[in-house]
Amino acid sequence: MRAATFARSAVWAASRSSRTLQASRPLRLFSIKAEAASDSKQKALDPNRLSITQTSSPKPLSQPETLVFGREFTDHMLAIEWTQEDGWLDPKITPYQNLSLDPATCVFHYAFECFEGMKAYKDKDGKVRLFRPDMNMARLNKSASRIALPTFEPASFIELISKLVNLDSRFIPNQRGYSLYLRPTMIGTQKTLGVGPPGSALLYVIASPVGPYYPTGFKAVSLEATDYAVRAWPGGVGDKKLGANYAPCIVPQLQAASRGYQQNLWLFGEEEYVTEVGTMNMFVVLKDKKTGQKELITAPLDGTILEGVTRDSVLALARERLVPEGWKVTERKYTMNELYEASQDGRLVEAFGAGTAAIVSPIRTIAWKGKHVECGLKETEESGETALRVKEWIEAIQYGEEEHEWSVKIA
Ligand SMILES: Cc1ncc(COP(=O)(O)O)c(C=O)c1O
């Protein structure tokens, strides 16, 4: 049996900031570099071997305003099986259908599952576009190899996904804010209860038309700073998009909801570092105590933070567009106490989550240690200026209003 070999890499790197005591300590990066289960001797993923079986009963289209996230699916799905002996078998697009799996299949027992979340958009000319699909492919390959599943050639998978999206493009509403949410998923399909690397896998993609996250405009959320449950930890898998990372977060979310908070703000360690918010990366805007300079801050990719595509896009655009306005843009550790003090001094200008589903999600307040840390919004405001600007910048690229290399035309 193939042995999964993992090369452990724990790297020490200098912190990029000396602004706070915590940040001036060296940043320890935790992440395992896993060897992929596939190798070059096996058959590669090959879009030329794709077969398409079209549905004989196309679904009626829903009114765009009635779409609920992830509830409706398009007519077709893409699926590719992998075996250890043969590598990637022929890709197939078929009518959307149930999977048939033996009850002993390893995904049900040991959580051999990873996934992606990405979107296809229709521009004003009716052309279909993906947003930075290379980043989703890279992340899926990292997630898959961490749980001993096979990897694939990113360009080939993007080509196959594009075929599916084009076939089902009638499901993408032609308005800003609407899109087709794509869910590439990989599962281990070996039918044995022995705990070991799966000898077979299935890579598939389903697609769901979605509307804007905030159909009637932004609604700022209230968070509960969560210290009694931990989403991710050094040496763990919080930087991978594994299904196993998500189920354990639901009970803390329900508990926060029972106290009137929409989301958890995940803290880490004695220092109470701020990490992520719900299933989004967290951003804050602080004003410097002495100079008043604005700083856009997000936690560094130290192995405990998901490498969000939106996070990376926000950082890149902020470096390009906010730094010339005199801002500082920083990836560094920051604590709940730092946010509390800044809020008390009136220096916490704004806080927002960032992710594919909503692009940005403004935050009104954070409940922490019996206090409410106010995040810079007036009572009448639902978003700060930075979150609004970032959303506008990213949407303009996604919908092809601003031509940009991140937006990839596929039809
Ligand atoms: C835990 C977590 N953090 C951050 C993100 C945001 O990532 P992205 O911008 O790639 O959607 C997601 C969403 O996928 C997530 O699940």
TrEMBL record:
Cofactor(s) essential for the protein: pyridoxal 5'-phosphate
Recorded catalytic activity of this chain's protein: L-leucine + 2-oxoglutarate = 4-methyl-2-oxopentanoate + L-glutamate; L-valine + 2-oxoglutarate = 3-methyl-2-oxobutanoate + L-glutamate; L-isoleucine + 2-oxoglutarate = (S)-3-methyl-2-oxopentanoate + L-glutamate
PANTHER family: BRANCHED-CHAIN-AMINO-ACID AMINOTRANSFERASE (PTHR11825:SF44), SUBGROUP IIII AMINOTRANSFERASE (PTHR11825)
Pfam families: Aminotran_4
GO MF term set: L-isoleucine-2-oxoglutarate transaminase activity; L-leucine-2-oxoglutarate transaminase activity; L-valine-2-oxoglutarate transaminase activity
Enzyme class name: transferase
Family named by the database record: Belongs to the class-IV pyridoxal-phosphate-dependent aminotransferase family.
In-chain residues carrying the UniProt-annotated modification N6-(pyridoxal phosphate)lysine: K241
Organism: Metarhizium robertsii (strain ARSEF 23 / ATCC MYA-3075)
Keywords noted in UniProt: Amino-acid biosynthesis, Aminotransferase, Branched-chain amino acid biosynthesis, Pyridoxal phosphate, Transferase
Polar residues: bias regions: 50-64
Alphabetical list of InterPro entries matching this protein: Aminotrans_IV, Aminotrans_IV_CS, Aminotransferase-like, B_amino_transII, BCAT-like_C, BCAT-like_N, BCAT_family
Record's protein name: Branched-chain-amino-acid aminotransferase
